[in-house]
Amino acid sequence: MLLFPDLPAILSGTLLQLPAAPARVQHLLLDSRRVGQPAGSLFFALRGPQHNGHRYMPELYAKGVRLFIIEAEAEIPGGVAAFPEAGFLLVEDSLAALQALAAHHRQQFRGPVFGITGSNGKTIVKEWLAQLLSPDELVCKSPRSFNSQVGVPLSVWELNPTHTLGIFEAGISERGEMARLARVIQPTLGIFTTLGTAHDAGFSSPEEKVGEKLQLFASVDTLFYCLDQPLVHQAAQALLLPHRRFTWSRHHPHEANVAVTVLETLADRTLVRVVLDKPLPQEHTFTIPFADEPSVENALHCLAVLLWRQVAAAEIQRRLDRLQPVAMRLEMKQAINDCYVLDDTYNNDLAGLTLALDALARQPRRGRRTLILSDVLESGLPAAELYARVAALLPAHGVERLIGIGPEISQFQSAFALAAKAFFPDTEAFLDDFRPDHFQHETILVKGARRYGFERIVTAFQQKIHGTVLEVNLDALVHNLNYYRARLQPGTRLMVMVKAFAYGSGSYEVANLLQFHRADYLAVAYADEGVDLRQHGISLPIMVMNPSPDSFQKLRQYHLEPEIYSFERLRDYLRAAGEQPLPAIHLKLDTGMRRLGFAEEDLPELCQLLRKNAAHLRVASALTHLAGADEEQHNDFSRRQLAAFQRMTPLLEAALGYPILKHALNSAGIIRFPEAHFDMVRLGIGLYGVEASGQHPEALRPVSSLRTTISQIKTLAPGETVGYGRRGQATDYERRIATIAIGYADGYDRRFGNGGGQVVIRGHRAPIIGNVCMDMCMADVTSIPAARAGDPVTVFGEEMPLVTLATGIGTIPYELLTNVSERVKRVFFAE
Ligand SMILES: *Cc1c(COP(=O)(O)O)cnc(C)c1O
C-alpha cells in the first residue's frame, strides 16, 4: 500500500503540499478526460509540444482528483494555493517520475516477467503467449499495444501479488528510449520477435537499432529469438552467454536449440516438425492453425517458449489448437434502433475492461449507456473483490444498464447497484431472450472473453445492415489532425469543417473525436447539421456557413454561430437580434473567390452598421476563403487575397472596438502559406486523408475505406454482353464477371462504368464492365481466378487511393467522399 507521503522518497521530488485527507495511491492518471475513479487517482502533469497537463488542474480538481505530480508550479492556473485539499509533489520530469513509480511497483513483484520487443509481432506474441500459458499461470500483460514510454508504466502498474507471471511489450522509435523501458519492466525473460524497417528514421544504422532494442534484455536469464536474423544473432551473442539464449531456426538446424526441419503450408494451417536439442534430441510434429507467414513466425516464437518450459507435446498441440487471431481494434458499429455497438469481444480482463469503459464514457451521445459483460477472467483477485471492483467502475463510466453473462458474474449480481440489470448463465440464454425493441438509442459496449462468443451478440445487433460499409479509421483521423496541428504557428486555433456529414465520414462520430482531441471550433453548412451535433452532445462552438433567416430561432436555441456574408442577411439578423439576443456572428469577406462575402468596397457601410448595432450584436471572427490554395500556379493570386484580407480586418476591428479572430486558410492553404495562419485555420479534406496541396502526399493516412462484397460470379461465353444497354463489350474469349453490391444509389459514380473505374478483389485490381446500375455493378475478374461470391471488394481505401480513383473520372476526392450515400453504414474503428 502506497500513500502520498511515501512518494518523495521514491520519486525524489519536493513535497509542496500534503493532501487534506490521507490517500492511497491506486490509479495512475495522465489524461484529464479519463477520470474513472477520482479517489486514489494520482495525476501526472506531462508536457509535450502540443499539450500541457498542468492546464487541466482545475478540471481535475473539480472532478475530485486530489493527488498530483507536477513539473512547473507556475503553470498551474491559480497556483497550488488554489487547490487547498490537494497534494502536490514537484518533480523535474513527470514522465520520468511515472516510470520511476512503475519501476518501484515492479520491484515488489517476485515472479518471472517476460519483456517482448522487435519491429513486428510484439502484440500478437504477447497475446498468444498469455493464451498459451494461461492454463499454468495467472498472467498480467500489457493491454492492447501499450508499449510506449507512457504505456509501459501503466501496464506494469497492473501487476498485483496474486499474478504469477508478467508479460509486457516494449516499443521504441529513437535512441535512449529502451533503457528507460528496461528499468520499468525489469524482465527476467525476453523475446525478440523480428527486426524490420519500421521507425528506421530514429537510428543511424540497423546495427544501432538492434543494439538499442537489445538493451531490454541485458539482465534476462533467458532470451528467446530466431537465429536466422544475423544482426540479431550477433548482437545477442555479444550481450549474453550461450546458456542465457534459447534459439530456434529454420536454416541453421545445428546451431539452434529448436531446429525447424519441416514447414509445410496446408490450406489454412501449417505443419511444423521440430527437433529439440536438450536434454536428449527429440522430434515433434505440431500443427499451427494459421497459414500466413507472420502468424507462423509469431507462433514459432511461442512454441519455443513452451518447449523450453517442457510442456508435453500433446498438451502443446491442444493449446495451439485454441489460438485465435488477435483483434487489435475496438470497433464502433451502427446497429438496430439507432443504437451503436462498441464491439470488444476479444478478451475480458480488468485492464481491458477499464480501457473499453473509457471508450464508452467518451461517447457524448444522448441515450442510455449499456454494458454487456461476460465473466471477467484472469484477474488474480478473489471473485467477490473482483466483482466489487467491476461494480465500482460502472457508475464512474456512466453505465446505466448492465447485462451480465456467465455463471460467475451471475452469482455476484447483488454487487451491482444499478436499477437496470439482467443476468444470463451463457450467451445462448441471452440470445434466446433477445428482443431488438429492448434496445433503443443506446450506446452498447459488448465486452466478453473470447470463449463466450460475443460476436454472435454483435451480429444480432446488426441484423439489418446491408453489405456495403464505409469503414472510418479514427486513428488515421487523429494522425491527420496531429499532422496539421504540428504545422500550425504557436497559438493558432483550429476550426474543423464537418459539413456534408463530415465529408461523408459521419458527422457526429467525427465531431465527437474532435471534441475529445480539443479542436477549437467546428463548422457545418446548414443549421440542421449543427442541431444534429448538439443533439448528440457536441458542445464545441459551431459556425454555420449558410444560415437561412428561418433558422435563426434554431441558432439561438442550440447556440450555433452564423456566418453572415451579405447586407441582406445582416439586416435580417439584426432585426431578429433586436427582439432577443442571438449568438455571435462570423463575417465572410470576399477577397477574390467571388462567391459569397462582403467586398472591400462594402466595408464603410458594413463598419457603420456594426458600430450602430454594437449593443446587441457580437462579432466572433472574420474570414475569407482562397480560390486557388491547392495549386502553386495561383500563389500570387492567393497572396493578393491574403493581403486584401489583412487590409480589411483592421477596419472591422476598429469599428467594433474589440479584437476578433481572423482566419483564411483551408487544408491546402495551411501547408502552402504558413505565414498566414493568423488566429485560426479551417481544416477540411486534410483531416479525411487527402493532402490537397500535393506537397506531402505521404504524410496523411487514408481515413475511409468503402467496401462491399461479391454477390455472384458468372462465366460469360465469347460474344455475350453484361447488364443494361448491353454495354459490357463482347469479346472473343470466355470471361468471369463478378456482380458486386454497390451502385449509383450508394454513391458509386456512373462514370466508373465501362472501364472507367477499378475495384480491388483479393489484392488485385478488377475493371468495372458494363454500366453501373442503381444497386450493383459488374467487375471483370477473369484475371483473378481465386475470386468467389462473398469475397470482400474494396472500392477505395488503402489499396485504392481516392485521388487515383477521382482523377480517373475527372473529378476530385471531395466529390467521391461526400457522394457515399447515407444508406451505406459507417463502421468506426480505432486500433
Ligand atoms: C469547406 C471549406 C473549407 C475546408 O476546405 P478543405 O479544402 O476541405 O480544407 C475551408 N473554408 C471554407 C469556407 C469551406 O467552405
UniProtKB/TrEMBL annotation:
UniProt: substrate binding residues: 595, 774
Enzyme class: isomerase
Residues at the active site: 499, 724
Keyword annotations: ATP-binding, Isomerase, Ligase, Nucleotide-binding, Pyridoxal phosphate
Modified residues (N6-(pyridoxal phosphate)lysine): 499
InterPro entries, alphabetized: Ala_racemase, Ala_racemase/Decarboxylase_C, Ala_racemase_C, Ala_racemase_N, Mur-like_cat_sf, Mur_ligase_C_dom_sf, Mur_ligase_cen, Mur_ligase_N
Pfam family, one: Ala_racemase_N
Alanine racemase C-terminal domain mapped to chain residues: 703-829
Xref: SMART domains: Ala_racemase_C
This enzyme's EC code(s): 5.1.1.1
Cofactor: pyridoxal 5'-phosphate
Catalyzed reactions per annotation: L-alanine = D-alanine
Gene Ontology process terms (BP): D-alanine biosynthetic process
Pathway assigned in UniProt: Amino-acid biosynthesis; D-alanine biosynthesis; D-alanine from L-alanine: step 1/1
CDD domains (alphabetical): PLPDE_III_AR
One Gene Ontology term of the molecular function aspect: ATP binding
Role played: Catalyzes the interconversion of L-alanine and D-alanine. May also act on other amino acids.
PANTHER family given in the database record: UDP-N-ACETYLMURAMOYL-TRIPEPTIDE--D-ALANYL-D-ALANINE LIGASE
NCBIfam families: alr, PRK11930.1
Assigned protein family: Belongs to the alanine racemase family.
Protein name from the UniProt record: Alanine racemase
